[in-house]
Amino acid sequence: xxxxxxxxxxxxxxxxxxxxxxxxxxxxxxxxxxxxxxxxxxxxxxxxxxxxxxxxxxxxxxxxxxxxxxxxxxxxxxxxxxxxxxxxxxxxxxxxxxxxxxxxxxxxxxxxxxxxxxxx
Amino acid sequence: xxxxxxxxxxxxxxxxxxxxxxxxxxxxxxxxxxxxxxxxxxxxxxxxxxxxxxxxxxxxxxxxxxxxxxxxxxxxxxxxxxxxxxxxxxxxxxxxxxxxxxxxxxxxxxx
Lengths: 120, 111
Description:
The structure holds 2 protein chains of 2 kinds.
Chain A: E1 4-7, E2 10-13, E3 19-25, E4 32-38, E5 44-51, E6 57-58, E7 67-73, E8 76-81, E9 90-97, E10 110-111, E11 115-119
Chain B: E1 5-7, E2 10-14, E3 19-24, E4 29-37, E5 44-49, E6 55-58, E7 61-65, E8 71-76, E9 85-93, E10 100-101, E11 105-110
Parallel strand pairs in B: 2-11
Antiparallel strand pairs in B: 1-3, 3-8, 4-5, 4-9, 6-7, 7-8, 9-10, 9-11
């Protein structure tokens, strides 16, 4: 249980194009999903918190017009990187959190496998 | 300022050695999670500690939560090359529902 999928796993795009990344919780309903960015050999940097049916909450310094987040259902959140540039190249990871998952009362996060974005 | 101070940042050891990774904070956490991440993959949850003073064991890994719930440690006994990876501690301080991560400990175990 507690499986989170992410698609695509790897994407290469040209500068100026937009890229959509999907995050799905496969066996539980995720009340909250988080989007992270990670640079090589560094920890995760939280970009935004996404709650189903409401607007995402972005961390300081993250442009909400550039990183569009849609949490349309309890099992799906999408991150769209608009007008991507080479500096947006990174490893993007989502996580999902559901209340009382698997009988646990802790709000644990379960992570997707990540998406490697390369902008040429 | 990092809310969760994790140390050491890098660790390179020989197979069979023991090691300890620390995660410290001035804030109280209702729970702390430890994750392990391999290159190109998402973090995988190892354990959640909840009760102050709690000790949990996962094979050769021992996790401890401080009595005051401000710090935690991960001890690996007789490390193996398969333990190589990035170890991350994470938690939600106080009444926050927003998770915070430590900087991570990059562990390499040489055969």
